[in-house]
Amino acid sequence: VKFDPSLPKEGINVSPAHPLREALLLVAGVIGVTAVVVLAIGVVLDFAVPRIPAGLEARLFSAWFGGYRVDDADAPPREAALAEILAKLGRHTNHPPCRFRVLMVDDPLPNAIAFPGGTIAVTAGLLERVESENELAFVLGHELGHFHNRDHLRGLGTGLALSMVWIAVGLGGGGSVAEIASIAGALTQRVFGREQEMRADRFGLELLASEYGHTAGAADFFEHLSESDRGLGRKFAGYFSTHPLHADRVDALGQAARVAGWPLHGERKPLAVVLRDGAAEE
Amino acid sequence: VDDLIVVALQLGIPLVLLVLAYFTGGSVERRHYASIRERELRWRGVPAISFRNIPPGWKVDDSALVMDNVVISVDYFKRFLASLRMIFGGRVKSYETLLDRCRREALIRLKVLAVERGFHAVINVRLETSRLANGRGKNGIAGIEVLAFGTAVQLRNRPV
User: Is B87 an 8 Å CB contact of chain A?
Assistant: First the structure.
């Protein structure tokens, strides 16, 4: 046996690829796949959501979130007052007036959320900042707009589907990859979420104009929000909230009102005593 | 701008870790390869072969079992690349260097061990690879271990 002491060539077991190039390619792949999945879910939901009957939705979800209707005798005063405003606005839509419920949430952050089943949750922080009935009516009208466009169901469906995707990606790839996928998905969703918010704004504006004859409260609402949203902590709370604040939303509202010929100014109706006092108690 | 801040917050820590691991892991690997090449050259005269039996013509005076093991850790960046690969498939290139380094290091150490104990060659060399779990679920790999073992032999007539 002859022993040959020469060494083998380098690079037999190692692929000649730059790790950064591979990382970029793969990350781009994950982002691309997630975006495609989110878009595909959106297409499916756009098809399916309008076909879900409102009655079925109410049966499925009304027990989840609760709330009070305008004809509920046992409604607490604040909920009753809110439900009354909601019923007034509801007359200008083609939805049955008893469909929607109101629920107060003791949260200092100003927000209103449309839940599946027709429940609108209003935070105490929102009542604190609102100064007229018109302003409040715009917020409620905005949420009615979400119901009208079935955005709440769309949001629920996207949320469920996305969490399944994230679990699948997390199982296959691990934590940081799931992180990338979740961010890519959330960003894709936000782009479309913004569109939904704009449409709901437009709907709320129309209800405001139909009920009060002018659109005065709408811009107030955003002004009050941005006043109270100075400061870093509030700012971050705003970023993570379901209703991101944007100057272009106000601009879009003003333009929509001008195009439709609705007066931008008018006399604001004062807030019902219960809602004002309720806010003062906080 | 809002979105950018959200992304920066959520991606910040993993990204810092990735960049850190890319540079530290890369530097460690480069230095290890330099050392491996240097020592492979220095110890190339010591045969480490996989024959089970004593090659014909060798006259063995003494023999002993020699073994060593090498453990190399996976860095954050390599694991990140590998976990991406687990989705798309393909060669897990980030782990290839890891195994390559482990095996070569183990073989060098085997030769050094044998020579230090007065032997001239190692026959019946075997390599075994196993991964060390770090106890954080099934995806957690702390590192890989290569165990090298063989029969070191002392020769009356040195083959080289």
Answer: yes
